[in-house]
UniProtKB/TrEMBL annotation:
The keyword Membrane applies. Coiled coil: none annotated. Its main location: membrane. This is AP-1 complex subunit gamma. PROSITE patterns: GAE.
Length: 787
């Protein structure tokens, strides 16, 4: 048999491949040679073949056929064979494979080997692939090494014990008595492993957290010794003594000090000392400071210490490293609601982050800027945000536009500033402005009679300059139809406008192929209503324009034109009353819920169920209820009732009648929560509350459990059997950052007390890649939810 090539030669051949097909050919040819070697029981070059196979596995090609050869290397007496064998075990095997059982005896023998290096290989492998059965079989050997082994093995055995207790928590009692000796060991590696071991136990059960709170003084003393010790070449990293151990201790202090005032008080001094004495010129120091800040915010610390932590995050914002800026913004966003005044001191620095080119930093900076808006700084902050809206990437425009509208409505100093701000949003945000902002602005304009002349003249000028923005065109059409006569006489804001020019502008919107169906319908409505407001000599022109669209290919536009033409020609005596000015209407339930659900200054809010009888009140008044809505970028998910969901989820025999308006919840009931669904990225939790005898309110929380993936465009739909009626409110957000969550409210009317079942459909984007739709049937509702 020819001598197989060496690993370095294989790597050289793969790198020399110019195409992916050529690379696959090289790998497939080498895998065939490796199989031949395994088949011929080539003991001399088995180690070399397995090493090459592991490299092929790391490139993503199948290598399962080498598992038994790995086992043969593990039992070999040669150290070089064992090293490759154990490495292959960690890469090719896992705890769920049956072949893993074959390695248990080899591990037990090697844990008793006379060479510490062989024992080290066994400990590393056990720590990576340990199953519950292996944990029970080998726990005593690991405990023996932790108790009597040298420091080199003791630290590895302790980390291996972390894996063992994670798989079998009842084995903690075998190891817990060894913790004091681990924490008091002079070897930093053993101390680091000991702190990691205590952290793992605290994460498993709160019982151990309470027990180890007695060790807080010892941990504080250990951290103080690290800070005060002089230069140590063995542990120095960029001028900082053992930053890995410092970070581990600080993280453990955060766990022990959470919700415990006495333990937190013992930590205050040392945390202040770390925060003031740590060098910030190197990334090592920044890592310690960041962990210190998280600990200060996570325990019951003093107010002065919290201000110091926020000031550290403010310094992080000035760093040239975008990763440091990101974690600072993320941390400030979590603390802004509890320490608003301290965060406000860094508002100018946060606003400067809006110029950052990195999109992840931008996203956090935008969220934090909206959270900082209040009555005192609304003018300055909004000015910066409008500048940002003009130049920001298109994927930000929808969220920024809607949040500006919400914040302006909450903190506007006067009506004219409010109108100017939203008009600026419409002209700058363009078609990215969500449709929900249109009725908000219409309500604002109709309720501010003193500014009708100013608003209408500004809108008329805007659509003459640029008529490509659909939300702007729709608001302008509505205002011209209601108050168009104010342009005829002129004002201090604009010169008089000829009535023919108004009709021409509206007609151009109808004729433009860039106008959406809903914009054209707004324009036709406005032209019809102007018959009551413009001079009578323009009546033939108005009739002519309306009649022209009676043959439109757009069915909605055609129907409106025919109906208005019939009104003008056959019922002209009723026209003035039908087309009179719309009275001031109350803000619709949909607008109120949209404002609450998207309020950036509030955390996660409970969104009340939508009153579907009032949901489309504005559209009904405008006669636009049946028009398909345009879909701007990053638009929040629409409010759905069960009649919408029949079409979306398929024929499930649903009741299409919407539920009646529901009363406010009267008292919380003791209905247990459920977690009906989860995957690698998202988890769902449902909390229940009985509103009255027939109505069940459900608060659904969706949590992003990933560490680095951003979830966007989240959509959740639900349907129930025909004996029930369901009503969904909007989610609190359509995007979920790593570790964050969103909420969505729903109410179910169950007059017959039937068992609850729900069919759900979810979809979202994970870092921009679509996921779903995911269909799920939930049938594990607690009986108290419907009884």
């Amino acid at each position: 048999m020819p001598t197989p090539i060496r690993l370095r030669d294989l790597i050289r051949n793969i790198r020399a491949a110019k195409t992916a097909a050529e690379e696959r050919e090289v790998i497939q040819k080498e895998c065939a040679e490796i199989r031949n070697g395994f088949r011929e029981e080539d003991n001399i070059f088995r180690c070399r073949n397995v090493a090459k196979l592991l490299y092929v596995h790391m490139l993503g090609f199948p290598a399962h056929f080498g598992q038994m050869e790995v086992m043969k290397l593990v039992v070999s007496p040669r150290f070089t064979d064992k090293r490759i064998g154990y490495l292959g075990s960690m890469l090719l095997l896992d705890e769920n494979r049956e072949v893993t059982m074959l390695i248990t005896n080899s591990l037990k023998n090697d844990l008793e080997h006379s060479s510490q290096y062989v024992v080290s290989l066994a400990l590393c492998t056990l720590g990576n692939i340990c199953s519950s059965e292996m944990a029970r079989d080998l726990a005593q050997d690991v405990e023996r090494i932790m108790r009597n082994g040298p420091a080199y093995l003791k630290k590895k055995a302790t980390l291996c014990a972390c894996r063992i207790i994670r798989k079998e928590p009842e084995l903690i009692d075998n190891f817990i008595q060894l913790v004091p000796s681990l924490l008091n060991d002079k070897h930093h590696g053993v101390m680091l492993a000991g702190v990691a071991f205590v952290t793992e136990m605290c994460n498993i059960s709160d019982e151990y957290t309470d027990k180890f709170r007695r060790s807080v003084p010892a941990l504080v003393r250990m951290l103080k010794n690290l800070i005060m010790s002089g230069f140590s070449p063995e542990h120095d990293v960029s001028g900082v003594v053992d930053p890995f151990l410092q970070v581990r201790i600080i993280r453990l202090l955060r766990i022990l000090g959470k919700n415990d005032g006495s333990s937190s008080e013992l930590m205050n001094d040392i945390l202040a000392q770390v925060a003031t004495n740590t060098e910030t010129s190197k990334n090592v120091g920044n890592a310690i400071l960041y962990e210190t800040v998280l600990t200060i915010m996570g325990i019951k610390s003093e107010s002065g210490l919290r201000v110091l932590a926020i000031n550290i995050l403010g310094r992080f914002l000035l760093s040239s490293d975008k990763n440091i800026r990101y974690v600072a913004l993320n941390s400030l966003l979590k603390t802004v609601h509890t320490d608003m005044n301290a965060v406000q001191r860094h508002r100018s620095t946060i606003l400067d982050c809006l110029k950052d080119p990195d999109p992840s930093v931008l996203r956090r900076a935008v969220d934090l800027c909206f959270a900082l808006i209040n009555d005192q700084n609304v003018r300055g902050t909004m000015r910066e945000l409008l500048i940002f809206l003009e130049n920001c990437p298109s994927e930000f425009k929808g969220d920024v536009s809607s949040n500006i509208v919400i914040s302006a409505g909450r903190y506007a100093p006067n009506a004219q500033w409010h109108i100017d701000t939203i008009l600026k949003v419409l002209t700058t945000g363009g078609n990215h402005v969500p449709d929900q902002t249109i009725p908000i602005l219409i309500h604002l304009i109709s309720s501010t009679a003193s500014l009708h002349s100013y608003t209408v003249s500004q809108l008329f000028t805007a659509i003459k300059t640029n008529n490509l923005h659909q939300p702007l065109n729709q608001v302008a059409c509505w205002c011209l139809g209601e108050y168009g006569e104010v342009l005829l006489s002129g004002s201090e804001y604009a010169d008089p406008v000829q009535p023919e020019e108004i009709l021409k502008s509206l007609n151009s919107l109808c004729e433009s192929h860039l106008s959406s169906a809903i914009t054209k319908s707004y324009a036709v409505n406005a032209i019809a209503k102007l018959a009551n407001r413009l001079p009578s000599h323009l009546m033939p022109s108005i009739k002519q324009i309306l009649a022209r669209y009676g043959t439109s290919m757009n069915l909605e536009l055609q129907q409106r034109s025919v109906e208005f033409s019939s009104l003008f020609n056959n019922h002209d005596d009723k026209r003035p009353g039908i087309l009179e000015r719309m009275p001031l209407f109350e803000k619709s339930e949909e607008e109120r819920i949209y404002s609450e659900a998207n309020d950036p200054a509030q955390g996660e809010k409970v969104v009340p169920a939508v009153n579907t009888a009032q949901q489309s009140a504005l559209d009904d008044l405008l006669g636009l209820g049946d028009i398909g809505q345009s879909t701007p970028a990053a638009q929040p998910a629409p409010v759905m009732n069960s009649s919408n969901l029949v079409d979306l989820l398929g024929d499930l025999g649903m009741n299409t009648a919407p539920p009646a308006p529901q009363p406010a919840p009267v008292a919380a009931s003791s209905i247990p929560s459920i977690e009906p669904w989860c995957d690698d990225t998202l988890g769902m939790k449902m909390d229940f509350q009985k509103v009255d005898n027939n109505i069940l309110a459900i608060n659904m929380t969706i949590t992003n459990s990933s560490l680095a993936y951003e979830v966007s465009d989240f959509s959740f739909l639900a349907a129930v059997p025909k004996q029930l009626q369901i009503n969904l409110a909007q989610p609190s957000s359509t995007s979920v950052s790593p570790g964050a969550s969103l909420t969505q409210q729903m109410r179910i009317n169950n007059p017959n007390k039937v068992a609850l079942k729900m069919k759900c459909k979810m979809s979202y984007k994970l870092n921009g890649s679509p996921v779903g739709p995911i269909d799920q049937v939930i049938g594990n509702f607690p009986p108290s939810a419907w009884e």
